[in-house]
Every structure is written in structure tokens, then in C-alpha cells.
Amino acid sequence: MDVTYAEFTRGPSPKLWSGIVSPSRGGFEGLSSGSPTFGFFDDFLHNTSQYDDYYHNTAGTGTLGRIVTDWDPGSPTTTGIGLLQMFGTADDDEAVIAYGNAADAPFKLDYSELCFECRLKCETIDADEYGFFVGLAERGSEAEAQIIGTGNAVTNTYDLCGFQKLYAETSAIDGMYQVGSVTKVDGAVKTKLDTIGTLVAGTYIKLGLKYTHSPHKLEWFVDGRQVALLSHSELEAANFPEDNFLTPTIVLATGGTSDSTTVVDWWGCVQKG
Fold first, then answer.
1. 61 or 260, which is more confident?
2. Are strands 225-231 and 83-88 parallel, antiparallel or unpaired?
3. CATH match of 5-272 with 2.60.120.200
4. I want to staple 176 with a disulfide (CB 3.0 to 4.6 A). Which of 186, 204, 210, 242 is the partner?
5. pTM for the complete prediction?
6. pLDDT over 50 at 114, yes or no
7. DSSP letters of 149-186?
8. Do 37 and 27 form a contact (C-beta atoms < 8 A)?
9. What is the reported pLDDT for 124?
10. Is the pLDDT of residue 26 over 60?
11. Beta 83-88 vs 63-67: how paired, if at all?
């Protein structure tokens, strides 16, 4: 069988997942050496329901659901086999998906090696129209409070770690992390996290995190390439979300009246036992 380079690049990024088994399915996994890992991978091949290991939350006219694929085997980089569409049509709409169905947040940033990655695209990149958060969030954020509230400001109520697209910016993606009720650390605080990725309308981008317990460090990856690294001495202890369990979460929130669409091709997260 002929396999193109583009088909390899669509999936999980080798450099990000090095040293840990990349996810292949939901549930418990195991390394070849026998060291246990926990994780999941979802290519969104099944019907959406409230009981498919996820919690779904929408505000206003925001919607979230799996859509019919437009998969083209002759052009494998343009679409996914299964797709999740997040959509908003009016100001302050929001669509949220979180792993664990609001009952469980199984990952922790002060425990062992962890990898998270997803592949998504935004159909438009206009300023003042929408913002998003992609990464790990404290349990409860998906249901009890909007992660991105009125005015598309990221709330500081919960622990978060990942990527943000601020609604006032056009295409810039920042790295960020925060502890609930403590000042957020993003590109405005640490220049290393400023504009670590750039959106292109209608074009897929891969966003990933890698946490290493020893030596203690956190890395951000965009399209399989490390774009930011914070060492132990650079991670601000009061702001680093290591005390609470977190779960993979994606949020789309609209800041205008134009239609805003984010399509997620796949996502996955794994942590060593």
C-alpha cells in the first residue's frame, strides 16, 4: 500500500508522543514494557450523545455535534474520517465538549508524563467574532461556569492549561495556564507563550501539550513542532495548575453576530501510571 507523507502528518505527532504510547482507543492502555497508562483517542466516528464519555454544554444558539464527513481519499489532509462541529451564530453563544461526562477528570499535572493533542480548523479567523480554549480544564468548568464568558474573556474561576485564541485577536494562538482565582499566565505575562501558533481560515492545525514530571517541564506543540517550553524554574508555582485533576476540554465562544465554526478532526490524551 502506498502511504503519503501527508497521511502520516494528519495523526498524532511523533515528537510530542515520544516516550509514551500514543492513544489508539478509549480506556486503559499499556506500554510494551508493562508500565500502565491511561488515555483515550477519538476520531469522532460514532453518533453524538450525552453518554459517550463526554459532557456537552451549549449556550444561546451554540451547537455541538458530529457531522457527516466529506472525506476524500485523494486528499487526506483536507478532512477527517469523522468530524465534530462546534458552531455559534450570535453574540455570547458557546459550545463546550469535555472528556469524562462531568463525572470524572482523570489527568493531573503533578503526577507523571502526560501528552494531549487535537487537530482542528476554524472556518473564519475574523477579530472580534469568537474565541476558543483548547487543552485541560478542571472538572466543573464545563458545566458550572462558562470558560469563556460574556465578552469572550477567559474566566479565572477554574484551573486551565492549554491554548487560547482571544476574541480581540485575528489569528494568534497563545499558550496559557492558570490556577482558579489566580492571575492567568499567557503571552501577556510570559513572552514565550505569545503567538505560538497562527490560524489560517479553513486549514487544520494540531495543538498539543507535553508534561514531563522529572525533570519538571511543560511543552507546547503546534503541528508537531515544539513552540514553547517552560522549565521547573519558569513555571510559576502559584499559577501552575498542579493541585487539581483536569480533563481535556474544547470551548468555542462567539463575540459577534457572524456564524463561527470550529471543526475538530480528532483528539486524545494519555498519562503514564
1. 260
2. unpaired
3. yes
4. 186
5. 0.88
6. yes
7. -GGGPBPSSS-EEEEEE-TTSSSEEEEEEE-TTS--BS
8. no
9. 86
10. no
11. antiparallel
